[in-house]
Amino acid sequence: MQNPDFSKGENGLLPAIIQDSITGKVLMLGYMNEEALEKTQLTGKVTFYSRSKERLWTKGESSSNYLHLVDISLDCDQDTFLIKARPDGPTCHTGADTCWNEKNEGIGFINQLEAVIEGRKNGDSEKSYVKSLFDKGINKIAQKVGEEAVEVVIEAKDDNEELFLNESADLLFHYLILLQAKGYKLQDVIKILEERHR
């Protein structure tokens, strides 16, 4: 991370946007001075400077709803933080997931899985199943999606819920691989669904 320019903020305070590292949802906005940044980096728990209490304040110090630091970055002007964190519970003091009373939901694990698929696609491990599929090309990947879709249909007609869910997971996994082979992510498909819904 570049050096933040605390001189740009009133009383040396810079805004810090807090984002859930998994869902991508913006959770809250706080302010940090140099000491709050240092404590955040040292403890791994997001700490702010409270303007009302006029002291350092670690989110969750009274509620235990800590924000666990994942990453800190600065904007192009070095005067605003973007902090990615894992929340222990609701972020807002009202009990809401976010300070805008939004649900902190998303396809977070799917995002993680897509990152794993991308890493294996670009990796050099000869033991990687994902890598082997990409090496075999689009036809093999598309064929696997077709095979998994047929297995889902077969299991849907039976009463074994465990097999049905496992085959569904296999289908989704291979579909994510197919999307990446075509240069897309699941979010691209979700955008189309959202547009149709409107």
Keywords:
four-stranded mixed beta sheet; 19% strand; 198 residues; alpha+beta
Give a written overview of the molecule.
This protein is of the alpha+beta class. The protein is built from six helices and six strands; from the N terminus they run E-E-H-E-E-E-E-H-H-H-H-H. The chain has a four-stranded mixed beta sheet with strand order 2-1-6-5, with helices on one face. Strand 3 (47-50) and strand 4 form a beta hairpin. Helix 2 (108-121) packs across helix 5 and helix 4 (138-156) packs antiparallel against helix 5. It is elongated. The chain starts with 13 loop residues before the first strand and ends with a helix.
List how many beta strands DSSP finds: 6
Given helix and strand content, the structural type is alpha+beta
Main beta sheet, described?
4 strands, mixed
Mean pLDDT rating: 93
**Taking strands numbered 1, 2, ... along the chain, how are they ordered across the largest sheet?**
2-1-6-5
- Unreliable residue stretches: none
Instruction: State the separation between the terminal residues, measured CA to CA.
Output: 40 Å
The fraction of residues in strands falls at 15-25%
Write down the overall geometry: elongated
Oligomer: single chain
Topology as H/E string? EEHEEEEHHHHH
Radius of gyration (CA) equals 22 Å
Helicity range of the residues? 40-55%
How many H/I helices?
6
